[in-house]
Design a protein that fits this description.
It contains 20 helices and 10 strands. It has about 650 residues and is an alpha+beta fold.
Length: about 650
């Protein structure tokens, strides 16, 4: 009965989504206040019914209702309750329902926290988001019904959840990633609303920017958690593989980064209006493209959900309608909102424009590398593989060229600046950055030019930030008072750029100084790696709630002192017999020690072991956390919550044809 309630609630949600897409849009067209006023209530009702549907499917998983097809295929009676719940989105049907729920959360959030918006604008934004909801809820009901029953008879215990997904990463990573993916629908909806209205000013950017920041922050954290999950769960010791599905989330992040900076210029100077709208469309379109890639069966990946061509065709048609329709609207309406404000070539505007160019080119290079094998296969030209060598060769130089301009950005002035002032402001930071680049690699066992370059660029970025911060607070009566008057928007930028510098340093340091050994080890054996002595103490059997494992117990010593005790496992899951590697990691700010088990070798208790020494690998994830926090901090700026009366006046003028 509970699955039927969930199915019926999802059908009612589709009806509400259709009404939300049509009625407020008609009201905005006809300037009918009553029709526009129903939009917030419809948005909240949509969330209620999708929430009921999601809750019913959750109950089916937690109660082991194996008469429901998706539960039987992705859960098991021995599975711990937390993984029974997260198994809901560890499959195509459930993850699509999670997507719809998060879309409804965003839609309701806009309805509840945008009272400062003119009713005309709010109704258009919510109508666009309702139309997106129609597409995804229809996708769920027509091709991916999560409440489909198994007939005849249900299995006794279920098939089980993929062992790779029986991890805390599944609990956190997909919801965060979807919050970012789907969050770009808000920026998209604001862009379409602006095009429909034919008006785009600083107020539009001020309304749109906090939502875009929050979505970008969630996506940053989601990608970071996915990288961390791959690092410790797969047993390879890698943190990024340029997998096509990894790229599917990375491309919207790159486009969203360009969008954030473009919105800042539009808000501050009224520039890049048409370009900002196009970036908002582009970022959400890439989110939809990622959905198509993961769910169409065109990719073979550990991340991919579905292999049913019918599902791929549905989302491809939806993608064509959304992208094609928005680009046609853009072609007709963009001239009406184009910018007519000038700026000098030496100015902050130019630097932010260069930022946009770099990130857009980076997005297109990743997009080309991801789609090229699919295009060639579709044309009958054979199977092609585009891997890390291509992406590293084209992406890394772009980011290296970007960082010098990032260092200039915070200290530069709007409208017009001069190279002479830049030299006066940043001469000392430039020299200090060069000194850091020369001295830091000397701390390693050997001097590495790539690490030196990364340190120079990161130090240049950080020292430029500190110089600009000092410039802002030095005139205050005290340092504390000066820091207090710095706006949340500036602190957000500061944290995000600081996080980017940490990422650059961590990526290059761990890539260049990483040491790994694959070797045969028996209990009693030792191996020295990067000055650490790994002692294989014993091999012991371990039993978990739904698995049995062989556990290798290691002690790690340095200079005769115990540093860590590590216990990697080789698990065999009881329901399916699947074998998985569980790595053991001793984490530190400046290095990780990593041990993973391979396969047993011979009859003497020997195993293939993988030992890793990874310097500064945590800096990548620390940097991503700082970037996410920076985005959330920016959204807290009080200027995004003021001037409500002005907004309402603007809305009344629009309703009367102003």
């Amino acid at each position: 009965m509970i699955p039927e309630i969930g199915h019926f609630a999802l059908i009612l949600a589709l009806c509400l989504a259709v009404i939300l897409a049509v009625v407020p849009a008609w009201g905005a067209w006809q300037r009918n206040t009553a029709a526009m006023a129903v939009a917030p209530g419809l948005a909240i009702g949509l969330l209620v019914f999708v929430g009921i549907s999601f809750t019913c499917l959750s109950i089916a998983f937690l109660q082991d209702d194996f008469s429901v097809k998706v539960v039987a295929a992705n859960s098991n009676s021995l599975l711990p309750p937390i993984y029974k719940f997260s198994a809901l989105w560890g499959n195509h049907e459930g993850s699509l329902l999670l997507w719809a729920l998060i879309l409804c959360l965003w839609t309701s959030a806009v309805a509840l926290f945008s009272s400062q918006l003119p009713l005309l604008v709010l109704s258009r934004v919510l109508s666009v988001m309702g139309a997106v909801g129609v597409g995804f809820i229809s996708f769920s009901l027509l091709t991916s019904n999560p409440f489909e029953r198994l007939l005849p008879g249900a299995p006794a215990d279920g098939n089980d959840l993929n062992p790779l997904l029986q991890d805390p990463g599944l609990i956190i990573h997909p919801p965060l990633l979807y919050m970012g993916y789907v969050g770009f629908s808000v920026a998209f909806a604001f862009a379409i609303a602006a095009l429909l209205g034919g008006r785009l000013d600083a107020s539009w950017a001020r309304w749109s920017r906090p939502w875009t920041n929050v979505a970008w922050g969630f996506l940053s954290l989601g990608i970071m958690l996915g990288s961390w999950w791959a690092y410790y769960e797969l047993g390879w010791g890698g943190w990024w593989f340029w997998d096509p599905v990894e790229n599917a989330s990375f491309m919207p992040w790159l486009a969203g980064t360009a969008l954030l900076h473009s919105l800042a210029v539009t808000e501050k100077r009224g520039l890049f209006k048409s370009w900002t709208l196009l970036l908002a469309i582009f970022a959400f379109s890439l989110s939809l493209l990622g959905t198509f890639m993961v769910r169409s069966g065109v990719l073979t990946s550990v991340h991919a959900f579905a292999t049913d061509p019918a599902r791929g065709l549905f989302i491809l048609l939806f993608l064509a309608v959304v992208v094609g329709g928005s680009l046609v609207l853009y072609a007709f309406r963009a001239p009406a909102v184009s910018s007519r404000v000038g700026f000098a070539w030496v100015s902050r505007e130019t630097l932010l424009l260069l930022n946009n160019v770099f990130f857009l080119v980076a997005t297109l290079t990743v997009l080309f590398g991801t789609l090229f094998p699919l295009i060639m296969d579709a044309l009958g030209q054979g199977k092609y593989s585009v891997g890390p060598p291509y992406f590293n060769a084209v992406f890394v130089p772009l980011m290296a060229l970007l960082v010098p301009f990032m260092g200039l950005g915070p200290v530069s002035r709007w409208k017009s600046d001069s190279p002479q002032r830049w030299r006066a402001e940043l001469g000392v930071p430039a020299v200090a950055a060069l000194i850091c680049g020369v001295t830091f690699p000397l701390l390693g066992e050997h001097y590495n030019t790539w690490v030196a370059l990364a340190v120079v660029l990161s130090a240049w970025l950080v020292l430029g930030l500190l110089k600009d911060l000092w410039y802002r607070v030095r005139s205050a009566a005290s340092l504390t008072r000066g820091l207090r008057r710095v706006t949340p928007s500036y602190w957000g930028m500061f944290l995000a750029h600081l996080g980017f510098a940490a990422c650059v340093t961590g990526i290059v340091a761990t890539s260049q100084y990483n040491i790994e050994h694959d070797l045969k080890m028996s209990p009693g054996d030792s191996k020295v790696l990067a000055g650490y002595e790994f002692h294989f103490i014993e091999l012991a059997p371990v039993r978990g709630p739904n698995f049995v494992a062989d556990e290798a117990r290691f002690e790690v010593l340095r200079d005769g002192q115990l540093v860590a005790s590590l216990a990697p496992q080789k698990r065999r899951y009881l329901a399916t017999g699947s074998v998985m590697t569980e790595a053991a990691i001793d984490a530190g700010l400046f290095r990780d020690l990593y041990v993973a088990m391979g396969e047993p070798i011979g009859q003497d208790g020997a195993w293939a072991m993988r030992l890793h020494y990874k310097p500064m690998v945590r800096w990548m994830w620390l940097g991503a956390i700082l970037m996410g926090l920076g985005a959330f901090t920016t959204a807290l700026d009080k200027r995004y919550r003021r001037q409500r009366s002005a907004a309402r006046v603007s809305g009344r003028e629009a309703l009367h044809g102003a």
